[in-house]
């Protein structure tokens, strides 16, 4: 599932999900970076992909950033 789709289904804003990441991991993702992940103009690093996979309980997987629409 694409990150954008996950946010919509879970009724998250970018900022609310960034806050969830920070609470779960202690890491702060810049909003600009997160927006690029959503649009596909930037692919998260391996550690970031693992973190997203864990926080979304497997709904967003690393391959989702590589596969087309």
Layout of helices and strands:
Layout lengths: L2 H7 L4 H12 L5 H9 L6 H10 L14
In short:
This protein has about 70 residues and is an all-alpha fold.
What report would you give on this structure?
Helices cover 55% and strands 0% of the residues. It is built from 4 helices and no strands. The longest helix has 12 residues.
Mean pLDDT reading: 93
Note the run of SSEs as H and E. HHHH
Question: Which spans of ≥5 residues are poorly predicted at pLDDT below 50?
Answer: none
Biggest beta sheet attributes: none
The SS-based structural class is: mainly alpha
Bulk shape:
globular
Q: Whole-Å distance between the termini? A: 10 Å
Q: Tally of extended strands?
A: 0
- Helix fraction, binned, reads 55-70%
Which percent band covers the strand fraction? under 5%
Please give the count of helices.
4
Task: Give the radius of gyration.
Answer: 11 Å
